[in-house]
Amino acid sequence: MMQRIVLLVIFFIAFENTFAQPTSLKGEREKPSTASKQVATITIKAPQLNTDKKIWIYLPKKYDSAKKKYPVIYMHDAQNLFDAKTSYVGEWNIDEKLDSLNAQVIIVGIEHGNEKRIDELTPFKNAKYSGGNADNYLRFIVETLKPEIDTKYRTKADTKNTGIIGSSLGGLVSYYAVLKYPEIFGKAGVFSPSFWFNRKEINELTQKSSSLKAKIYFLCGDNEGDADVIPDLNTIHNLITEKRDSNLNLSKIRIVKGGQHNEKLWRDGFVKAYLWLF
Questions:
Q1: Do the beta carbons of residue 210 and residue 183 sit within 8 Å?
Q2: Residue 53 DSSP class
């Protein structure tokens, strides 16, 4: 009973930014933007989801003066990636971190669908929480967004230079993406994945998969509040390892002591994940 209560608490903490962005109190000064000049936004139609999507794009330093092409990482929950003004419980500081590394990569952040976030980021329906529209969400990325990005920007569009990274449900859908589209996504950052949401289906899909070729970085904390996070992650990692030559160094699992299910864990873990993947 206690474990179920803890699970529900973690679920709603993790998805509190699903339902609303904070509103300013009367007389409270609006938070200033912290996004760097390397970040811009566009809006693109998403026919697969019957909506428009706001997209955040980070371009590396000197992009305008360079002529070379760059790898691309697609990331979920863009509201939390670059800007404290739009984040609900703290940003990841992706732009500042990449600027400090002089990273040669393009980041494409996709804003979550607010009340539709659970639907978009879950592959299969959950008996209690529903969801299950990730196929259409990934179709939007693969069929609409990626072609647009590859057309408008100088990208390395091949599999080994295309990654996908997310946390919580974003971690779940990022892992699902490399199973569903192994010819598109060659690298994935899977942070605190909510495998519990579709545990049975994801485990079975992993066991049946014959094309686990992607390089995958798994990250979680040992204090996320749900006792199943680490076992679920270990189960998936072990299933993958059984299917691949361990000498190829295609997957890595990192468990952070004291790490909790929050932006701090994912923000602090991003650079190591990026450097290992790319």
A1: no
A2: E
